[in-house]
Amino acid sequence: MAMTGKRRVLYRQGSGFWRMTAKWVLVFGVLYLLDGGLLRSWGDALVWPMIGILLWVPFGIGVVWYPKKDQLVALTTRELRVRRKRLPLEKVNLLHVARLWLEGRSTADDQPVLEWTRFDRVVWVPLRDGRAFGVEFRDPAAFAKVFGAFAVAACGGPDIVRARAAAETYPDPLPVRRPRPTDDGSPLDLLDIFN
Question: What are phi and psi of 170, to 5 degrees?
Fold first, then answer.
């Protein structure tokens, strides 16, 4: 947990830009060292870093990183931020999150959260109005653990969550699917629920 100004950051996930760049440098750096040290001269091996730089923009940024740029996520005690969009936690159905966490389930599927493997996966965040939107995570179980524990604490503890879940009724969250383009050709923004 880190402090950002006066907000406590519970969970943070970067976009992966620097991780991707480091892997790119490592691959072409190793090729440079192998070529220069074993096969040709160091001057001739300079072609590998040049190729790496030329391919980094279209493939490293354009193909590898750009599709995952929306994975920049931060959860604070007041809001969920995806890139620069902010969703106040007052709009999130924390009771539903807490109930699912205590049951070890998720809105994404029937597989228990603790059995999730570490790979890119969408976690559905339920809203009070019955919608749920998906946020993609590299380690979804870690986010679900932090978010579930926070929701249980915010609702007053496990006993209160179970009592409220038995007494209250709320709409079952339905995932917000990626909208089709409207008639004028402009697609609706999935992140409009943040406004």
Answer: -150, 155
